[in-house]
Amino acid sequence: MGCTACPRKCHAVRAKQVGFCGVGSAFRVARAALHQWEEPCISGVNGSGTVFFSGCNLRCAFCQNYEISHGCFGKDVTDDRLCVIFDELIAAGVHNLNLVNPTHYAERLARVLRDYKSPVPVVWNSSGYESVETLQKLEGLVDVYLPDYKYSRPDRALAYAGAADYPGTALAAIAEMRRQQPEDVFEDGLLKKGMIIRHLILPKNTNSSVEILRQIASRFGTKTIVSLMAQYTPCGELERFPELQREITAREYEKVLTELETLGFENAFVQERTAADTGFIPPFDLTGV
Ligand code: SF4
Fold first, then answer.
1. Distance from C-alpha of 214 to C-alpha of 65, rounded to nearest angstrom
2. Burial 66-76 (b: 16+ CB within 10 A, else e)
3. CA of 177 to the centre of ligand 1 (A)
4. How many domains does the chain have?
5. Would 157 be classed as within a structural domain?
6. Whose CA is nearest to atom 6 of ligand 1?
């Protein structure tokens, strides 16, 4: 039968082969460390306990973490070792366990998290390209959903990620996340339960960004926490995409920001354009693995 855990449904027999996501059944991790560059309500003062999983089921051409998402750099770890990594991050004082790009390990993570019973919130930091059935296995195990909503247009999703079904699939996934965590609960400025939808502004794609904000507003309401990211910097394989070979301009940034304000989002995080620097991409060097 093979794996059908994500919308790719590639049926790989992951005990013997890798799937479209590039990895087998064992966890592979590229970095586990304190991270200060998430939204303030996630990073807090102490930092977020990020665990960067290798491989990816979406594989955008411009991925900012190309080395681990496409290249699958990382080290295989057992379920027990992953729990020790969680323990070590918590002992270091992190505010949460932040599972970065975990979708292709969702079923295995559901089993691990059920036994682990994290004393700090678990953050599901994903591309949004997920199946509702698989997300349902995480109910009660994930406290904060942190999905991207990357593309509103099937043609762009097809061109950049080979996933024309991304828009509808991601919206359905985000609706399931909202169902599981209907309230945003803050304590001392930290998000303990809830959801933040992230969107990375791409150069020459501001009409899509505007459409994305409108869709979020109409489908989930303007109380939804939105995080607008301006950190895009050219990475990956961009020969076919000349429009992606530069950072966003001040004008593009302002256009999307204006739409955010016009729509009346009440809870938004907005990244400065100065964030567009590869210095913000953490080194994938097996730290903490
Ligand atoms: S999680 Fe990976 S192996 Fe499973 S269906 Fe998706 S791409 Fe294929």
1. 28
2. bbbbbebbbee
3. 20
4. 1
5. yes
6. 6
CATH number at residue 187: 3.20.20.70
Q: Give the pLDDT of the chain (289 residues) as one tens digit per residue.
A: 899 999 999 999 999 999 999 999 999 999 999 988 899 999 999 999 999 999 999 999 999 899 999 999 999 999 999 999 999 999 999 999 999 999 999 999 999 999 999 999 999 999 999 999 999 999 999 999 999 999 999 999 999 999 999 999 999 999 999 999 999 999 999 999 999 999 999 999 999 999 999 999 999 999 999 999 998 999 888 999 999 999 999 999 999 999 999 999 999 999 887 666 666 678 899 999 9
Is residue 232 one of the residues assigned to a domain?
yes
Pocket test residue of 8, 11, 16, 53 for ligand 1, highest count of atoms within 8 A of CB = 8
Q: Which residues pair with 125 in a beta bridge?
A: 100, 146
CA 4 to ligand 1: nearest atom: 5
| Residue 8 belongs to some domain of the structure | no
Task: Provide the 3-class DSSP secondary structure of residue 55.
Answer: coil
User: Is residue 163 within 6 Å of ligand 1 at its C-beta?
Assistant: no
Full residue range of the structural domain in which residue 245 is found: 27-280
